[in-house]
Amino acid sequence: MDLEAATILGKLIGAGLAMIGAIGAGAGIGIVTSGAVQAMGRNPDAAGNIQTNMILGIAFAEAVAIYCLVVALLILFVF
Amino acid sequence: MEQTPKKKGWRWGFNRWLVLLFIVGGGIAAKYYAPIQPHVQLPAEPVPPVTTLLVVFAVLTLALTVLIKRWEGLLMAAFFGVLAALPLFSGFVWVNTLTALVIADIILLLMGFGVYRAIKGGELVPGGMPGAIEALLEALYNLTEGTAGKWTRFIFPWFATITLLVLIANWTELIPAVDSVGILEPAAHGYAVQDLGWAETIVKGEVEHGAEAFGLVPFVRVVSTDLNFTVALALIAVFMVQVIGIKAQGGAYFKKFWYTSTLFSKPIFGVIDFGVGLLELISEFSKVLSFAFRLFGNIFAGSVLLFVIGSLVPVFAQSMFLMLEFFVGLIQAIVFGLLTMTFMAQATQGHGDHEEAHA
């Protein structure tokens, strides 16, 4: 295998590995949403407030996955 | 309206047949012009500037202004004029995402003028588009008021502007021919070109030996898939968070980052508090990063998804994913605006008065 092919292979594998971090964000978003839906079921009057906070929590959990995406994009397109 | 007499005869609607026609037509078109595998490109591609079009727009709006005697036309004409003058600067490159931003700006300006005229007209209950925008803004205002309290009047314009701009910018992806109509340029991994008479298209298959391979550079690409836009928006948002923090608390705002008041009075926890302050400083920078890449990542991944689905299943499946993209664009616009609003509201409350508010 020549060097160029090896570099491309390494980039692709590296980008794929970098996106493993999205697992955590996925689990986090699931937990956040499950908690929020339960809260809305118990107290439907507070649904609006809970929904706002749920979206905020999802956004923060998602931020981690976005860092993974940044790393993967950096590996693929920059280096 | 409710009790319309039952119409006899055709009762199967009209639009659904159009949809069926488009699905069947799409199937036939996909048979003859098979969709090609997309070439994903991260940075925005340069396209020829649309200067002549903008000059025509500017002249048209000026003429319209004189004709209907409304000062809003002057603003629009100035907007087009400034845009048309941009390529005069050296080193300026007109990219295809900029065209999408201009389209989004025009839609936003028209919406704004429409609402202005509806309010100026003295109607207490505006109908149609202005009414819809009023309902949307009222919902956003109530949301802001619940979080920001007395700072609502300062925070709300930023929240609403960012939300509306990102919303319109994301939804330009749904306009037909965005991302798919453009100029053909020689490319390394390109495809063969076929002449349709009124246009040319790239077709699937191997390039004949000796012939040049071409790739497509679209005229319009969604602006949120350009990092320049999202980073700029994120910088504006985070900078204004600092501004409103200083405005609300004065110099005490910086105590959040450089917390020394408990450093000597509480030996261990003081040091921890100081370290937390330094972490806050880092988190301000990571806010820019996560703001910018959240929007960029979601919309870019969405458009890549549309390309790939379009090339794998050319018929019907892409419509489902367009619906998903519609939803994702809405969610991302709300998240961007909501996070800006929440950070701003947090910045107005200092360390001290947070506990007072709960007591």
List keywords for this structure.
heterodimer, A: 79 residues, mainly alpha, F1FO ATP Synthase, rod-shaped, B: 359 residues, three-stranded antiparallel β-sheet, 10 helices
Chart the SSEs and their pairings.
The complex is a heterodimer of chains A (79) and B (359).
Chain A: H1 3-18, H2 22-42, H3 47-78
Chain B: H1 15-32, H2 51-68, H3 72-85, H4 96-120, H5 128-148, H6 152-171, E1 182-195, E2 200-203, E3 214-218, H7 227-249, H8 267-312, H9 317-348, H10 351-358
Antiparallel strand pairs in B: 1-2, 1-3
Structure description:
The complex is a heterodimer of chains A (79) and B (359). Chain A has a single domain (3-78), classed as F1FO ATP Synthase. Chain A is built from three helices and no strands. Chain A is rod-shaped, with a radius of gyration of 19 Å. The relative contact order of chain A is 0.17. Chain A is mainly α. The longest helix of chain A has 32 residues, at 47-78. Chain B is mainly α. Among the domains of chain B are: 129-181 and 222-351; 183-218, no CATH class. In chain B, 63% of the residues lie in helices and 6% in strands. Chain B contains ten helices and three strands. Chain B has helices at residues 15-32, 51-68, 72-85, 96-120, 128-148, 152-171, 227-249, 267-312, 317-348, 351-358, and strands at residues 182-195, 200-203, 214-218. A three-stranded antiparallel sheet of chain B has the order 2-1-3, with no helix packed on it. In chain B, a hairpin with a 4-residue loop joins strand 1 (182-195) and strand 2 (200-203). The radius of gyration of chain B is 26 Å and the shape is globular. Classes of the chains: A mainly alpha (79), B mainly alpha (359). The A-B interface holds A 49, 52, 55-56, 58-59, 62-63, 66-67, 69-70, 73, 77 and B 42, 143, 146-147, 286, 289-290, 293-294, 297, 301, 331, 334-335, 338-339, 342.
